[in-house]
Design brief:
Two copies of one chain form a homodimer. In chain A, about 70% of the residues lie in helices and about 0% in strands. By secondary structure, chain A is mainly α. At the A-B interface, α2, α7, α9, α10 and α11 of A face α2, α7, α9, α10 and α11 of B. Chains A, B: InterPro entries: Homeodomain-like_sf, HTH-type_TetR-like_transc_reg, HTH_TetR.
């Protein structure tokens, strides 16, 4: 009986839980991540305590530790979210014969992922209080893998003139910075449009010196390939 | 007599001042900036007090306030240092007829400035505890001017295909991100070579779709122009 009552959606008697209305039906783990993301970006990682997080979610600190190994565990998961979607796709890209189309796809989806991550958490790794943590070192290693993937794809696309002027890792860094430019766009208050995601993907090919005609072919091959590779076809290309 | 004694370089009796050996002959204002840069980047802006700064410099807090309007005044000056050298050069560039050479020069010198700034302070603006300050809003306005200068130069260089895919401000953001890639390179512990600065400048032209042959001409025009424009000719081009 009392169990049935607690499943009832109407609030029961007693102290109300401090759950924001929009998060009421979310998984507690996801609620903790979302609230932490907001607080870390808003007031800094060092400036946020597990108590702040627990209070904002409306749970006890003990419940927070049931889901995460404290603040570092939450940070690790948030940082991972900024690189994992792209890294997971690198393997799939081997199935695409054109390195230009593969680079277009990776850059587009990586930028899209950063453009839609809650509270623009792509900003976190650059903060000193974050960048000196062991979790940030793990993140840096994962970002390094991604940079290498971009650099290696970029070298496959690049002409001799490009490889003469830019080494593989610098090329990877330049492409990754083009992708991460959406973080800055969001930070300055603008939303990132689909046309801009296309602009990022196309620019990553330009950085590799791919001529315009080939860029247009690559974008078309990418749109055709994506339907076969991933279950849900994203809205690619300019609108 | 006592004044002559205090001018003597040999340490007198009494409590020694906590000045790091390397900074002993620096201007107090510069010492405060250098120490603050190290502390802000190392332990965060919010995590550093004016007391920490004064102690690390080896002066009293009152002396610090003689030179700066507190921590915000120091932050404002450090943030300014990350954009001012490039903004100051934008005006000079009007004298260069080739927009490609002008963009090469601006990107090269901006990247060089970020690559040599003490303690990689280019990292500061991205931190939440910094980005929410009034000083960061002033910085954002200055960076916005720089982005516009890059975007406008980029549009002058870009082909129709480029302007069809990337709007002026996004182009500026992409070029600025290529320039700022040296901040990430330094953050991961690598020094930025002259060849990499050339790589950044060349990549900024590639982002605008400038063909390779024109890029090579632009780099040569830039090297020739710089000697006439600025007193000290930097070491341009690949080694």
């Amino acid at each position: 009986m009392s169990s049935a009552a607690s499943n009832n959606r109407r609030p029961g008697p007693g102290r109300p839980r401090h759950i924001p209305a929009s998060d009421t039906h979310a998984d507690p783990r996801d609620q903790i991540l979302a609230v932490s993301a907001r607080l870390f970006v808003g007031q800094g990682y060092a400036g946020t305590s597990t108590r702040d997080i627990a209070e904002a979610v409306g749970i006890r600190q003990a419940s927070l530790y049931y889901h995460f190994a404290g603040k570092p565990g939450i940070l690790a998961e948030l940082l991972e979210m900024t690189v994992r979607p792209a890294l997971d796709r690198v393997g799939d890209l081997a199935r695409i014969e054109s390195p230009e189309a593969a680079l277009y796809l990776l850059a587009f989806h990586d930028a899209e992922s950063l453009a839609t991550l809650m509270h623009n958490i792509g900003m976190l790794p650059a903060c000193p209080d974050v960048s000196q943590t062991p979790e940030a070192r793990e993140y840096a290693a994962a970002r390094g893998q991604l940079r290498e993937a971009y650099g290696s794809l970029g070298i496959s696309c690049g002409s001799q003139a490009v490889t003469d002027t830019v080494a593989m890792l610098q090329l990877g860094e330049l492409i990754l910075n083009a992708v991460e430019s959406v973080i800055g766009t969001r930070a300055s208050g603008d939303t990132v449009t689909n046309k801009e995601l296309h602009g990022v993907a196309v620019s990553s090919l330009r950085i590799c010196g791919v001529p315009q005609a080939q860029i247009e072919v690559a974008a078309k091959v990418a749109v055709a390939a994506v339907g076969q590779m991933w279950l849900c076809q994203p809205d690619l290309g300019p609108r």
